[in-house]
Amino acid sequence: MDDAAAVGSSEAPLDDSADPYRWLEEEGSPRTRSWLRLQQGLLERHARHHEERTWGHILKEIDAAAVGRELSPRTEIGDSIFSHQLTADGGELIAVSEPDGRSRVLLDTGDHAAHGRVARWLPDAAGNSVALQLHLDGHENGGLHIVPAAHGREAWYVPDASPHPAVVFVGELLLYSSGSRTEHELRVRRLPGGTPRTVALPVPGPVRLSLHTGPGGHLLLRTRAPASPAARWWCTRWDGSGTPDWQELPLAGLPVTAFAVGPNDMYIGGNGLLGLDLVSVSRGCPVRLLPLVPLGPLVPPPSEGGSEGTIRALRVLDSGSADAAPSLAVLRQLGTTRRLDVQRVIAAHGAVPDEPESDAVASGERGFGEPGSGAVASDAVATADEGNGEPAASGFTWHARLRIGPTARRADGGPGDGAWVLVDDPRFGAVSHRVTVGAPCVPRARRSVLRAAAATSGDGATVPLTICDPPFVSAGQAAPTLITVYGGFGVSLEPSWDPIVAAWLAAGGRIAWVHARGGGELGPRWARAGRGPGKSGTVDDLCAAARYLQSGGEAGPGQLAALSASNGGMVVAAAMVRASHLFAATVCVAPLTDMARYHIGGLGNLWHAEYGDPADRDALRALLGYSPYHRVRDGTPYPATLFVTGGNDARVRPWHAWKLCAALQEATSSDAPVLLDHHEDGGHDGRSGSAARALNARFLALLAGRTGLRAPSTGNRSANR
């Protein structure tokens, strides 16, 4: 078709002749609504009802075995433990367990008429109440529920909290962000149920802000203005009266990848591990960042290039003595694996160039690590090279997703000696484990055998893969293979448990995670390499991984399928359009597809740093070079493809998928279907409960049917036992 061919011309002007399906952007128009009804009918005609029912039964068994599975790390306060769990109907609950063994459910999303998802939850420092945000029917709405942990107290609602809010408790104060998702005001209420008032910020609005606090009462604020990509950091101690005396922290230009707030100090991961004295900052005294080193050798030792990995999370743990060096739980990403260590740290002796004595030192102000902080001053201890008899660092390496919760709090509000981690495994699910000072032993959890592999991309870049073989299938033995990718925004793609992954492995299929450029697996450079014009290289990375799996015999002819969402859905769509012969089937959930107009609607106008500005001619040329919608070619045999969208998606508008779906349906020379599953009440994060299970069954029926994977008999739940 002539106009479909024009879609694929990177030199075509951006008018209606180059964009024949722009009318689908009018989501509520009669023409668009009529087209959506036709797509629903097409979906029903091509539905594999028998296979969907079979996979649905398998997923129901998997879900039943997963009831009670924890969805995020626990929070420990005194003798109480707060948890976030999966329910029998696919919903979520927040519960608190008391020392006597009794457990109380504070929130169950199944109690709401609308499908709900817990977007954020945070207990206060005393464990008296929990602030949480609930997203309903795919809406990323605002508002906060304040739920008491004790019986007999009334919950109350904060209607003016922003979506995905910044929120902290400071004594009897609740501080939170108000406004839209990206433009915030800072507000405060006195608990319980006080009248809101706006708190003055140290910079003019609009800004995007985040809030953090620690056991010493210091309040940290991070602000980011729309016109400036750099964040600014501020600190104060505030009791809720008057205007906070914000003091700026000397973090400008520092690539902060993680941080933690102790009683008196801040610990920063970025260029190594750094410390900052917050007591002096809050008094307005000059301070400097001090490099920190562990007491004892780093385990594991630095890699061949001297890298100790990217610090992804930090927690300050109580070492048991006011005079002892602080203990930090340090979570590092070492390539495609994660390493958690609990180590005592000191300021590096002589690592900071000599400077004139500051007014703070001359006046006797406290320096980083002086008594009362739990840290050790650099001029009062030997360097780490001298050993001091400290044991080697204690920790463990994990092959899949690993998350760490907040530092445990003692009953008096001080930091405890541990934190809860949640370790994931693609076959066996998630397991909670408490790490403590001196005993962060390996969790007692079964592990899948994951293999590391590498493909060579078109420009010679080495692209890592993580591969999980099904039971009784060895490396190099062909099996239906499901490949997934993300490749954007510095987000690391980590192997993890999911009902689809569990079902695919149980059926005898293989899973491959592609750590493409743009992700955070190999650090900031790897992330930068997949931004702007480099995003086309991200697409090449996925194609190279697919070729590697096929040429190495891991996936036979017609045995490779791809599934991903959001930015990953865009990468899958672009790879499918670029090299359609590589894939037997693809599923793209909430993808961008028209990269010349990604900034129109949703949150696209925030993503110029990731994709480039379409108003810039060179950036537009790069975008059109891989834009899935613009690369469709008439007469190409495209694989079976399913697009999934939601009417309440506030990040990526559904018309992106609709336009590519229409273009592929018109252009393909294959009899493989190109389908759309649109749900008006769906959002960017997918569906909940029974609707999620039905959609997963549809995914599996399409992907398995096209790759030759047979569903296992019901009763075989080896994938998640």
Automatic annotation (TrEMBL):
Domain (Peptidase S9A N-terminal): residue spans on this chain: 15-153
Annotated Peptidase S9 prolyl oligopeptidase catalytic domain residues: 502-703
Pfam assignment, any one: Peptidase_S9_N
Lineage: Bacteria, Bacillati, Actinomycetota, Actinomycetes, Kitasatosporales
Annotated segments matching region Disordered: 1-21, 352-376
UniProtKB keywords: Hydrolase, Protease, Serine protease
Protein's name according to its UniProt entry: S9 family peptidase
PANTHER family for this protein: PROLYL ENDOPEPTIDASE
Record has Hydrolase as a keyword: yes
InterPro entries from the UniProt entry: AB_hydrolase_fold, Pept_S9A_N, Peptidase_S9_cat, Peptidase_S9A, Prolyl_oligopep/macrocyclase
Entry superkingdom: Bacteria
